[in-house]
Amino acid sequence: MNEFVLPMRVYYEDTDSGGVVYHANYLKFMERARTEWLRSQGFEQDALLKEQGLLFAVRSLRLDYLRPGRFNDWLKVHTHLLQCRKASLTFSQTVQRGEESALCQAEVKVACLDAQTFRPRPIPKLILAEITGGC
């Protein structure tokens, strides 16, 4: 799967007093999109935690704010898996309004962690086999 797109509406709670998307909420939009991407690959994060004792956590990110999103906008969060490593995944994510240029762009590195120790651990081969089509 080369690209996953999650549509979403901007609600009043997502904005500041001027009706502009609050900067931290772009991170929430991207987190939701990565969760839905993983779900579309057949993996639920709560099941991975319970059954395999692993979780995914953001390790680093680079984010560029390009133009404002506003209350009631209909957005699309584009998620593309750029790189698979032994214990991490790197994504390119873009938030876009309609067919306009991007509102926000990010590169997000997510680490696979042992749920007990919070130490990096290899991504299970079954998961890698399912998702590597995007790498």
From TrEMBL:
PROSITE patterns: 4HBCOA_THIOESTERASE (PS01328). Transmembrane segments: none annotated. InterPro entries: 4-hydroxybenzoyl-CoA_TE, HB-CoA_thioesterase_AS, HotDog_dom_sf, Tol-Pal_acyl-CoA_thioesterase, YbgC/YbaW. GO terms for molecular function: fatty acyl-CoA hydrolase activity. CDD domains: 4HBT. Pfam families: 4HBT_2. The keyword Hydrolase applies. Keywords: Hydrolase. Belongs to the 4-hydroxybenzoyl-CoA thioesterase family. This is Tol-pal system-associated acyl-CoA thioesterase.
